[in-house]
Design goal:
The complex is a heterodimer of chains A (about 180) and B (about 160). By secondary structure, chain A is an alpha/beta fold. Chain A is built from 5 helices and 7 strands; from the N terminus they run αβββαβαβαββα. Chain A has one domain: Glutaredoxin. In chain A, about 40% of the residues lie in helices and about 20% in strands. The model of chain A has no long low-confidence stretch (mean pLDDT about 90). Chain B has 2 domains: about 90 residues, Cytochrome C biogenesis protein (Helicase, Ruva Protein, domain 3), CATH 1.10.8; about 55 residues. Chain B is elongated. Classes of the chains: A alpha/beta (about 180), B mainly alpha (about 160). Chains A and B meet through helix 4 of A and helix 3 and helix 4 of B.
């Protein structure tokens, strides 16, 4: 008994060490989104291409899809753009775009130049929808199910590795 | 000349340190004070180790704008904090709220302190009962005399 008490500090140190060790290498940059498993917030914003056409959260329903937040001022968005084009064209994935805090004319030129992977493009110049979605740095990509509920959120570029993860989650959604 | 330089230097410092806050107009002083308190307690989601009052990142700017808008439209502090938490999560609170998840955080230190005191009491209690000297001070007669002597020496001064 007495020996156990003497050894107690050692055990506590080991426990603390394991706890801290566990934290090493963890991603501290991405914050878990409180919007997971909640529907996309209500919005009514114009389409990037058509100022007269208003898009709402209802337009994002129907099929599991990706919702990608992008802007022309965001270098990482350019980096992931080719990958998005490939996913949309070759794999037939529905990708919706949110043009976040950007300039309409610039965005149109950008999409002309680098091609447009988006089934719909929501123009959010003030970042209102972005704020409601908890966007804090473009690019961000949300995985939506057919009912327009957010199932997953990725912060940063969608590269080959990230797409593999998203694809797997998306296939699970299609099955359900 | 030196004084002049110093004054210019001071002016430089003052304009920098207030630039993040004083761009907003407030309807009354109470709102201004609340703005400063809330901006200091809300964490910037992008830069993480700064609050939204300190940070120059675009998202912190947006959140300050939103904070100002909500204050001026009469939202109370809880509504504002809820607004931020539903979008960015508990993460944005530098002062976490009391909940089942944060009990350990809030009560952990006090619990550890109490545990420590209990351990010290138990250990010292055991030591005392095992010791034959057994007076309230834990000193033998000889040690007491020596202590008295030393204390008296000090009083003479």
């Amino acid at each position: 008994m007495r020996r156990l008490i003497v050894l107690l500090p050692l055990f506590l140190c080991i426990a603390l060490g394991l706890f801290l060790w566990n934290g090493i290498g963890k991603d501290t940059q991405s914050i878990p989104s409180p919007l997971l498993d909640k529907p996309v917030p209500e919005f009514s914003l114009t389409s990037l291409y058509n100022e007269q056409r208003f898009l709402t959260q209802e337009d994002l329903k129907g099929r599991p899809a990706l919702l990608n937040v992008w802007a022309t001022w965001c270098p990482t968005c350019k980096q992931e753009h080719a990958q998005l084009n490939r996913i949309a064209q070759d794999e037939g994935v529905v990708i919706y775009g949110i043009n976040y805090k950007d300039d309409r004319a610039k965005a149109k030129i950008w999409l002309e130049k680098y091609l447009d992977p988006y089934a719909l493009n929501i123009f959010d110049p003030e970042g209102k929808l972005g704020l409601d979605l908890g966007v804090y740095g473009a690019p961000e990509t949300y995985l939506l199910d057919a009912q327009g509920v957010i199932r997953y959120k990725h912060i940063g570029a969608v590269d080959e590795r990230v797409w593999a993860q998203l694809k797997e989650k998306m296939q699970q959604l299609e099955v359900n | 000349m030196l004084r002049y330089c110093f004054a210019v230097l001071l002016l430089c410092i003052s304009s920098v340190s207030y630039s993040a806050i004083d761009t907003y107009e407030f309807s009354d002083e109470a709102n201004r004070a609340r703005f400063q308190v809330l901006a200091a307690e809300l964490r910037c989601p992008k830069c993480q180790n700064q609050n939204i009052a300190d940070s120059n990142s675009p998202i912190a700017e947006d959140l300050r704008f939103e904070l100002h808008r909500m204050l001026e439209t009469g939202a109370d502090d809880d509504q504002i904090v809820d607004f931020m938490v539903t979008r960015y999560g508990e993460f944005v609170l530098y002062r976490p709220r009391m909940s089942a998840q944060t009990y350990l955080l809030w009560y952990g230190p006090a619990a550890l302190l109490i545990l420590g005191i209990v351990v010290v009491l138990v250990v010292s209690g055991k030591r005392k009962s095992g010791n034959k000297k057994d007076s309230a001070t834990g000193l033998s007669e000889q040690e007491k005399q020596r202590l008295d002597h030393l204390l008296k020496q000090d009083q003479d001064k």
